[in-house]
Amino acid sequence: MSLKTFTREEVSRHASENDLWIIIDACVYDMSRFVDLHPGGAYPILEFAGKDATEDFYGLHRQEVLVKYARYKIGTVANEEPKYEIRQAGALSKVPYAESSAWMGFKSPYFKESHFRFRVAVREILDGMALEARRFEDEGVKPTDEFVRTLGEAGILAANIGPGPHLKGIKLPGDVKPEEYDYFHEMIVHEEMARWGVRGTDDGLIGGMVISLPTVLNFGSAALKAKIVPEVLSGKKRMCLAITEPYAGSDVARIRTTATRTPDGKYYIVNGVKKWITTGRWADYFSVAVKTDKGMSMLLIERGEGVETKAIKTSYSPSAGTALVIFENVKVPVENLLGKENHGFQVVLSNFNHERWVMLTGASMGARLAVEECFKWANQRKVFGKRLIDQPVIRNKLAKMVASVESVHNWIENITYQMCHMDYFEQAEKLAGPIALCKYQSTRMLHDVSDEACQIFGGRALTKTGMGRVIETMQRTYKFSAILGGAEEIMADLGIRQAMRKFPNARL
To answer: What would the mean pLDDT of 40-64 be, rounded to a whole number?
Structure first.
């Protein structure tokens, strides 16, 4: 149904509480039935009854509010066009630096047509799920089974694990063929999930899966892979990695959880405690580091008798499923051994590079979201009679943010290119140091970007809803990246130690 057009004079005649129209960006809204429901009370709307509220609206609300309450729109102002474009689901942002350079019209040696097609398809899928993902985050609840299965059916879960044989038979977004799927496609899917801006929900959905399922893919028996992989990638089951303990974080060798063989040799009896386990509360399967008689081993443990999980309260949403996991006399078949007994350290180390690289991709997009938010806010917020963007100090802050984000992102693209052209063993030899240093640099970047963004948004940066929601989430959660997957200090030291392994016998 086509909307009516009204003159501004006609709108001005609807200026009472029971007959209240307002104009926002050349569109006319009938607020008569909404005025008493307005969260800020009736006065802010009554103040603009019959008038144009565009400037004040955008000083107080995100544009998505117009989408949410579109049902109150009754027409447009005659001979006027909206000044502000509402981004449609799946569309790219036109805000400077809101997308990486290849999607801002710049040339790139890395991306092919399939990558552009893939991003559009993934974004369209995820944009359609964003509101529900945010609800999980805000309410601190478990992402529903239906939601996870939707991601599985769309090929999103499998895409998060990267290229490999596990993609056979999977229909990927954008009709990308499994054999052409590479790490740049995977980078895109991690970035697009990060665009939800719901760090807890994101971790609860794929955080545990991304770091645990490869232990089965690469070290599990054929029978284990046949059972576990389809269940997890379809979203029917959830999985996490359980290494960290109250007694051991980065020092993995100090774990105390034990696995003792039964006299008949058919089972391990597992006892111990794991802590800060992402997705642990929701997991059906646990890939667990244990002490065996002559070293460390990895076991696949299914939730059942003797397995208990308790919530751990953290800085971000409970929807991450962060848990204390307790194993008490858990009986595990020896067939659930991942890799060789007493050689579990190899399993633990095998996915560190990929895990850290995944964190890099999400961190880059998280910072880029902050840049986009700050650009938009600085253009629409007025103080002392000027837009924020008209203040040199604000432009300087934006410049620092953009320069930091673009520098780190270009390093990530370079590392991703190396991953696409190196086999696993060459990656292990050459990329551990650069990935560690890039992770260190990225979390330093997050610190600086979060700091500048908070100053630009002011008090709104401390508010979980409304204009500053994205910035508040970032400043509350960015330190996770500086600790999880290897603390900054460990990453910096690892990067230099790896470099010293190749240092020549040279002197000044």
So the answer is: 88
Whether the CA torsion 90, 96, 101, 105 is positive or negative: it is positive
**Whose structure tokens read 């000083």?**
59
What range does the domain containing 443 cover? 351-501
Domain CATH for 228:
1.10.540.10
Q: Report whether pLDDT(105) > 80.
A: yes
pLDDT, residue 132, reads: 96
- Could you tell me the CA-to-CA distances from 42 to 39, 46, 66, 241, 317 in Å, in that order? 8, 6, 18, 51, 32
**CB distance 342 to 168 below 8 Å:** no
Map residue 364 onto helix, strand or coil: helix
Does the pLDDT value for residue 1 go beyond 60? no
pLDDT per residue over 203-214, tens digit each?
Answer: 999 999 999 999
Shared domain check, 372 and 313? no
Give the distance, in angstroms, between the CA of residue 59 and the centroid of all CA atoms in the same chain.
28
CB–CB of 275/324 below 8 Å?
Answer: yes
CA distance 291 to 253: 9
Q: What is the dihedral of CA 379, 380, 381, 387, to 10 degrees?
A: 50
Q: Are 337 and 266 in contact (CB under 8 A)?
A: no
Among the three residues 300, 322, 347, which one is the final residue of a domain in this structure?
347
Residue 205 is given by DSSP the state I
- Tell me if 86 is assigned to some domain: no
